[in-house]
Amino acid sequence: MRILQPGVEVPDPLAPYLEVDRSRPRHECWVTGHMVAGIDGTAAIDGRVGSLSTRPDQKLFRSMRQIADIVLVGAETVRREGYGPVKLSDSAQAQRRQLGKPSLPPVAVVSRSLNLDWTARIFTGAPDDAPTHVITCSAADPERLAEAQRHAPVIVAGDERVEPEKALRALAEAGHQVVLCEGGPTLLGELVAVNRLDELLLSISPLMGGDPLPVAVTPPGTGISRFDLQGVMAEDNTLFLRYESAGPERQRDE
Ligand SMILES: NC(=O)c1ccc[n+]([C@@H]2O[C@H](COP(=O)([O-])OP(=O)(O)OC[C@H]3O[C@@H](n4cnc5c(N)ncnc54)[C@H](OP(=O)(O)O)[C@@H]3O)[C@@H](O)[C@H]2O)c1
Known about the structure:
CATH architecture of the domain at 15-103 and 164-246: 3-Layer(aba) Sandwich
Strand content: 15-25%
Largest sheet: 9 strands, mixed
CATH superfamily of the domain at 15-103 and 164-246: Dihydrofolate Reductase, subunit A
Low-confidence stretches: none
Bound molecules: NADP nicotinamide-adenine-dinucleotide phosphate
Distance between the termini: 22 Å
CATH class of the domain at 15-103 and 164-246: Alpha Beta
CATH topology of the domain at 15-103 and 164-246: Dihydrofolate Reductase, subunit A
Structural class: alpha/beta
Shape: globular
Number of helices: 9
């Protein structure tokens, strides 16, 4: 056991995250989850994430998208949060271009129902070179599927439901090497269940008493996944934790 002492000031809180080598994923692409929780693990307050997130967390959340080749999000989060396309500062966009990436990463929405508002900013306001994608399954309603295809590039990955491995394979084949999953808990839980979460960026906000919704909701029967703590930062009573999936020797159930 060690006491963590306050360490050096970090002038740019994004810098430690930009330094992480995500070029050698365990599978076709690297998957990072980025979530915020209360001290009691709650992932939302009154169905929204807003009042859960402290000022430095909001700032880091927005800037973290610089690491992404694509931002993956569940349809319920898009519906509840009124998700829009990614925005980044001019300097972040320039840094991405220097690395040969497009200025902005697209968003990909996972949905079986395809109950999505095609007039919403997330579809109409996305740049031409980073259109919002939809990932669905072949059980989707054919009329809704045809409608989706009129508004977005659509990936069909799975039969009755989107199979995360198939979806990630399709994203990797399209050149998306770093997938940033911004939740919600159901989608994140599906990635955990198939052992596809390489990294979790978890902010702990100094409050309790939100919705009874944990940061990840794994499907019944999912085993335990283990992670190694790789980084800790703090500001404004908020903890910023970085975990990576533990190696195979620690993944075995004891
Ligand atoms: N604390 C945080 O960091 C954080 C982050 C994000 C969201 N949130 C909160 O979390 C709540 C929403 O999360 P949630 O867990 O209810 O929903 P979610 O994960 O955002 O979305 C679930 C929806 O995604 C689609 N989906 C997920 N897995 C699928 C699969 N395998 N195949 C087909 N479709 C699939 C389905 O959409 P269809 O219903 O369209 O079929 C499903 O209903 C909100 O309150 C939001 O504020 C918190």
